[in-house]
Design a protein that fits this description.
This protein has about 160 residues and is α/β, with parallel strands linked by helices. Helices cover about 45% and strands about 15% of the residues. The protein is built from 7 helices and 5 strands. It has helices at about 10-20, 30-40, 60-65, 90-105, 115-120, 130-140, 145-160, and strands spanning about 5, 45-50, 65-70, 75-80, 85-90. The protein has a 5-stranded mixed sheet with strand order 1-2-5-4-3, with helices on both faces. A hairpin with a 2-residue loop joins β3 (about 65-70) and β4 (about 75-80). The radius of gyration is 15 Å and the shape is globular.
């Protein structure tokens, strides 16, 4: 298991797999990600939580993690004096749908925002080939998904 990466939802887990990180430490919700970062240490080993920017963010996010960088709509936070990071992106479904629209990449000819959201929320999102193909196209395009990939690689490279 590549427990360095801790995505908060099924769709984030699918995206992390598309970026080349298999068997990440999937958690349900931001609280789960924060708890894993706390309990598993990560003071000397890198831990990167990947979460949505929610309206009701746990207080730990702002109180314990300091913003170190913003790239586009992606924010990177770090718990001081540790190798614990949070990558915060907009709501996954809206973010990736809007990136596709901006780049003229369609999830499906017939899909609308709601049906796409339903696919992303499904516990089988990781197995959905149409979703994986869509995310892979976004990764290959000049998108924030590509930027996310670069951010993760840089964090891992600079925090061995």
């Amino acid at each position: 298991m590549d427990n360095r990466l801790i995505p908060e939802c099924y769709a984030d887990t699918a995206l992390i797999a598309i970026l080349g990180y298999k068997n990440s430490n999937h958690q349900l919700g931001i609280g789960g990600v924060i708890n894993v970062l706390k309990k598993l240490g990560y003071n000397n080993q890198i831990g990167i939580g990947i979460i949505d920017r929610d309206k009701k963010m746990p207080s730990d996010v702002n109180n314990q993690y300091k913003k170190i960088l913003t790239k586009g709509s992606i924010e990177i936070r770090q718990m001081p004096n540790t190798k614990k990071f949070l990558i915060i992106h907009p709501n996954f479904e809206t973010w990736t749908w809007d990136e596709g629209q901006r780049l003229n990449i369609l999830y499906s000819e017939k899909a609308d925002r709601k049906s796409y959201k339903d696919v992303c929320k499904d516990k089988n999102a990781l197995k959905d080939n149409k979703l994986k193909n869509y995310l892979n196209k976004l990764k290959q395009a000049n998108s924030e998904i590509q930027e996310l990939d670069i951010i993760i690689k840089d964090l891992i490279k600079n925090n061995p």
